[in-house]
Design a protein that fits this description.
The complex is a heterodimer of chains A (207) and B (328). Chain A is of the alpha/beta class and 207 residues long. Chain A has a single domain, classed as Dihydrodipicolinate Reductase, domain 2. In chain A, 29% of the residues lie in helices and 32% in strands. Chain A is built from eight helices and 13 strands. In chain A, the strands form three sheets. In chain A, strands 7-8-9-6-10-11 form a six-stranded mixed beta sheet. Chain A is globular, with a radius of gyration of 17 Å. Chain B is an alpha/beta fold. Chain B starts with a strand and ends with a strand. The relative contact order of chain B is 0.16. Classes of the chains: A alpha/beta (207), B alpha/beta (328). The interface between A and B is medium-sized, with 26 and 32 residues. Chain B: InterPro entries: Gfo/Idh/MocA-like_OxRdtase_N, Gfo/Idh/MocA_Oxidoreductases, GFO_IDH_MocA-like_dom, NAD(P)-bd_dom_sf. Chain B: Pfam families: GFO_IDH_MocA (PF01408), GFO_IDH_MocA_C3 (PF22725). Chain B: One of its GO terms (molecular function) is nucleotide binding. Chain B: This is Putative dehydrogenase.
Amino acid sequence: MSPIIVGDRRKITSNNEMIVDDSDFKDQNEVYYLPTERVVENLANHNVYVYHDLSLYAPFQKMKHYIKEETSLKGVFRMRRLLNHVDDPQFVIGADLFELESLFGKPEKIYLKSTQNHSIVSVRYVDGTMAHVDYTFQTKDYLSIEWSGLKYILEFDQHDMSPFDEHNYFESFQIDVDHLLNEAYPLERLTNYISRLDLAELGVNGS
Amino acid sequence: MKIGMMSFAHMHAHSYADCLNEIEHVELAAIFDDDRERADQIAKQYDVEAYTTYEEFFEQDLDAVIICSENNRHKEMVLEAAKHQKHILCEKPIATNIEDAQVMINYCEEQNVILQIAFPVRFSSPIMELKVRIDQGELGDIVAFRSTNRGQNPGGWFVDEHYSGGGAVLDHTVHMVDIMRWFLSDEVKDVHAYVDSFFHDVEIDDAGILTMEFNNGVIASHDASWSRYVDYPTWGDVTLEVIGTKKNVVVDAFKEHINVYPKQGPNHLTFDFVGHNMDLALIKDFIQCVEEKRQPFISGHDGLKALQVALCAYQSNDIGQSVRCHEG
């Protein structure tokens, strides 16, 4: 049985997998692949895998490649996220931190400030990296990433790098469905990670 | 108007001296620098008399002075200038500690002389335009800021805490905090920061990230560092994103540039800035301020509040938690 992938059909390149805009998760026998921006609290009883846009985007993959070439993880990582249609910000922020942990190692300290639709997450990693991620939850998507390290300064800005001048780069940010299925992981792994971080206690709540 | 310059220890002194030479009816009239070798070199470069003692320098006919010494000598020079009734433009940061800054402010008030702090970013054309757009309500209410001020390691006395009072976090936080305070007419309530030395083999900090909250609830992130390499296309950056309830605007004070790809020599790209000279605008404003005997656009108090945030960042890093900076 092929899985049901919930997501933006314009972004996901697929042959014959079932991609749907939304799902009510009625069928208990189905396996659902859900983007982290659509994850909500009450999905624990469903067979849900989650996939995260950041880990699938080519610019972030390329950044990771260069950062892994650094002789030391002492450096400053900054990421700017504008996100449209996020059901519960803690799952997106949690998934970002989960992804960054795979790059920078264990966080030593996490500090968070939130106001209205904007959150700032500041992380100090055990291996030295300091990171700032700024989120605004509003009506469009945007991503920029910067790394200032010992070997490299890396910069990605969705607007500057767009092959089109309409600033709609996310429509050309294609996600390969096989990559998506390989990178997805059980929802429980994300919820357990977020519980450990205690993001709700830090001030990130459902929108 | 006759302007004296006190110390060329800070590299900005050269830009300010060039600006003075561009303004009609303004004369770079005398230089004080107690580094004899530097004084001689500067005197020759600008064709002006240089003095190595305060007595000789203040015997000259001067209306005002510009101070570009090491940070820890700002207080000493400001007090000397104020004692001699000279109006003052002092390089940032105002001082290396709050007590010195307050003494400087109080004494200048007593002596009835102007004390302006050199925050040229306030005179950046894009930054000024953004201020107008905010005041006109185009962005709605401000929700948050996101800023950067990153540059190269200036070396020399900058990396000696005795003279500088702090590294990149002090050097590159005060500008952007000043802009945020100006945009909001509010003070930073608390500061959380991570500070470290990453990029250079120096004991002083060269990297820091700050998370701040203002009394009115606006939050801000700031990246201050000396992380730019010599081969990076430009010296550094000054950027600010303002997140509003109606729209977000990102402003880059040095975005206006042409790309230069030299065919010979080091094969790398350089950005050649073509925007307005914010240092010139700063100096013109100071001159006008003295002529009109008005309150400075950027006061000693502004300098003190920006300094306070940077010092709170160091404190936050030391104790591992956020620091209360200003009681609302």
